[in-house]
Amino acid sequence: MKLLVRSPGILTTVQDLGRWGHQAIGMPVAGAMDPMALRRGNIMVHNDPGAAALEITVVGPKLAVQGSGIVALAGGDLGMTVNGTDVQPWTTHAVEDGDVISFSGMKDGLCRGYLCVSGGIDVPPLMGSRSTYLRGKIGGLQGRALKAGDELDTGSPYILRERCVGFVCPEDLRPDYSPSRPMDVVPGPQDDLFTDEGIKTFLSEEYVVSAAADRMGYRMEGPTIEHVDGADIVSDAICLGAVQVPGHGQPIVMMADRQTTGGYTKIAVLTANSVARLAQRLPGQPVRFSAMSQDQAIIEAREERGRLESLRLALESWIADPTKDEKERVEPATEGQCRITVDGETYEVQWEKI
Amino acid sequence: MKETEPRIRPAGDSCLVVDFGNAIALEINAKVQALRSSLEARPVPGIMELMPTYRSLAVYFDPVETDLERLRAVISAGIGSIDEQVEIGSKEAVIPVCYGGEYGPDLESVAIHHGISEEEVIRRHCSNSCYCYMLGFTPGFSYLGGMDESIATPRLETPRELIPAGSVGIAGKQTGIYPIDSPGGWQLIGRTPLVMYDPTREPATLLDAGLWIRFRPVGEDEYLDIREKAVKNAYELEIVEKGDGTL
Fold first, then answer.
1. In which element (H, E) is residue A351 found?
2. Rounded distance, CA A69 to CA A161, Å?
3. CB A5 within 8 A of CB A50
4. Count helices and strands in chain B by DSSP H and E runs
5. Which of these, A167, A232, B45, B190, could form a disulfide with A92 (CB 3.0-4.6 Å)?
6. Rounded to 5 degrees, what are φ and ψ at B7?
7. Considering only CA atoms, which of A241, A204, A239, A240 is closest in space to residue A225?
8. Which of B14, B24, B55 sits opposite A272 (nearest CB)?
9. What is the pTM of this model?
10. DSSP type of residue A42
11. How many CB atoms lie within 10 A of CB B127?
12. Could you tell me if A67 and A117 are in contact, meaning their C-beta atoms sit under 8 angstroms apart?
């Protein structure tokens, strides 16, 4: 299957789980901003959880399908349609030659969706990853966001892909994106360079995602966080989710495209799940931070992996279910009622098959 | 606990940072490199990568595959095995540089700034070995220490919009090589024909943290000759043994 890009949307890039293993030479990891969604979308089309997909931001692209295959949108509900008809996110759909996939707009307040296709998006891997690193102009499709006229190949699809169609990710296995839920952070590695008051401010006050929020980092605005003795340190590693606090006292959460090293104190680091949840927030939205021990954070990471395994098993049993075809077949209705408006007059209509 | 004792600090759910101190010092970086070598020799299952910086080693791990207790124990053992007399890198890479002219448009102003000849700037720039503390900022950018401080020169007042890859510059007490075309404000004194960074090559960068480098002046003919080989990936980086490797 191929996807022909008719229009690219605001920012649509090819992403997988990132270019790990090269930070020691200064290579940023990049990768999906919301890996919780990417992994689920891939599982739903029977891919490896880290296969490359399209990361769609706020306004989606228009894509013409060449050949046939299966697709699933995970993460934010961006109003996906096929040939103008709404199709549900978190559901595996079949697409046929000539179909046009487009997106009508954000529906649930989440800003990033992952369009996963069976076989994955097949751009050439670079240093072990297909992720686009925009600032470095590498990976993905020539190191840039999609543009009109691009053609994307997909890899070899799963042989029983048709049997995945109609699979719905169970509600309890979807990420909890609830906007009221605070971001979990593990204090450190330089929390001792902040005053008790500074740490208390960070963990008790509300911060707002500023307009300067991109794939590299989310700047937050709120009460000033107090350092013991200045914000500068000799450069240290910046890991995913690190909360840097420069001299102005406003936190910056470092995201997928972060640089590998930096010289600002880090008060805490978001858990990977919280980074994924933050990646779905938009400028202007409030965020709170809540402290968690590293041991507890690891337990939560394992629980997340368990949910992915449950999703994989749910798909396998869907594929294997011999009665599915009967369940799926909806008997055509023989009677019903509907409302029709003609020239401003509304009529209640009852009908039955004769 | 002594203030110089390394600390193992948490960094989220998938990283530990082993911190050897907040300073730019060979002794500290040598310990970072020693622990890196120790963990590379005895890898714990689930370690995703090691990230050395000036002052710390970040150990990224998969929280599902890694036993944190075991990882901490191996790191502690690794720290314990670092000798009092830590060794620092004994290998030195020789980086050919064509100084001045179109390759180093600021060589003349650096010479004027210090009231010495251009040849003397080149001599001093090549006189000291520089130590690569870490790579970061952009792919392949090396943080070097040890330049002859008598040629320390302030940055340009107005940064250039485009500096060609391979340019060798001075900014304050630092010297370094731009691995990719980028904007920047360093005083450019020369350019190396080597391809410092190529994402399609393995390894992608010529330099690595813990390596010493020494600049060697070459004329334009040799520059072009090496350049021709380097772009075809046919130039072998010259590496020499440097002293006994102890501090």
1. strand A345-352
2. 8
3. no
4. 5, 14
5. A167
6. -120, 140
7. A204
8. B14
9. 0.89
10. H
11. 13
12. no
Those residues whose C-beta lies under 8 Å from the C-beta of residue A2, and which sit 6 or more positions away, are: A65, A66, A67, A151, A152, A153, A154
Full DSSP string of A280-317: T--TT-EE-EEE--HHHHHHHHHHHHHHHHHHHHHHHH
Its sign, for the CA torsion A35, A38, A43, A49, is negative
Q: Residue A329: what pLDDT?
A: 54
The whole-number pLDDT of residue B84 equals 65
Structure tokens that stand for A78 in this block: 């961006």
Confidence (pLDDT) at B223: 98
pLDDT digits (tens, 9 = 90+) for B16-56: 999 999 998 999 999 999 999 999 998 889 999 999 999 99
A345 has which bridge partners?
Answer: A342
Nearest to A72 by CA among A46, A50, A48, A96: A46
Q: What residues in A contact B205, CB-CB < 8 Å?
A: 25-26
Residue B163 and residue B41: Cα distance in Å, rounded?
A: 39
Task: Give the pLDDT confidence score for residue B1 in this predicted structure.
Answer: 39
Judging contacts by C-beta atoms under 8 Å, the chain A residues touching residue B60 are 20, 23, 239
Q: Amino acid identity, residue B71? A: L
Residue A337 to chain B, least CA–CA distance (Å): 54
For residue B17, give the chain A residue with the closest CA. Answer: A189
Token digits of residue A345: 């007059």
Q: What are the residues facing A339 on neighbouring strands? A: A348
Question: Which residues fall within 8 angstroms of residue B15, CB to CB, at 6 or more apart?
Answer: A237, A239, A240, A269, B58, B59, B60, B61
Name the one residue in this structure whose structure tokens are 């949910």.
Answer: A307
DSSP bridge partners of A103? A80
Q: Look at B204 and A242 and tell me if their CB atoms are within 8 Å.
A: no
- Give the residue on A whose Cα is nearest the Cα of B204: A25
Q: At residue B192, does pLDDT exceed 80?
A: yes
Instruction: Write out chain A's pLDDT in tens, 354 residues.
Output: 999 999 999 999 999 999 999 999 999 999 999 999 999 999 999 999 999 999 999 999 999 999 999 999 999 999 999 999 999 999 999 999 999 999 999 999 999 999 999 999 999 999 999 999 998 889 999 999 999 999 999 999 999 999 999 999 999 999 999 999 999 999 999 999 999 999 999 999 999 999 999 999 999 999 999 999 989 999 999 999 999 999 999 999 999 999 999 889 999 999 999 999 999 999 999 999 999 999 999 999 999 999 999 999 999 999 998 777 665 555 667 788 878 877 778 888 887 877
Question: Residues of B at the A interface (Cβ-Cβ below 8 Å)?
Answer: 9-15, 17, 19, 22-24, 48-56, 58, 60, 63-64, 68, 134-141, 143, 197, 199-200, 203-205, 208-209
Query: Whole-angstrom Cα distance, residue B235 to residue A245?
Result: 44
Could you tell me which residues come within 8 angstroms of residue B228 by beta carbon, excluding any fewer than 6 positions away? none
CB count in 10 Å sphere of residue B145:
17
Q: Which amino acid is at A25?
A: I
* B182-191 residue pLDDT tens: 888 899 999 9
**Amino acid of residue A143:** G
Contact B103, B147 (CB under 8 A): no
In b/e form, how buried is each residue of A100-114, taking b as 16+ CB within 10 angstroms? Answer: ebbbeebeeebbbbb
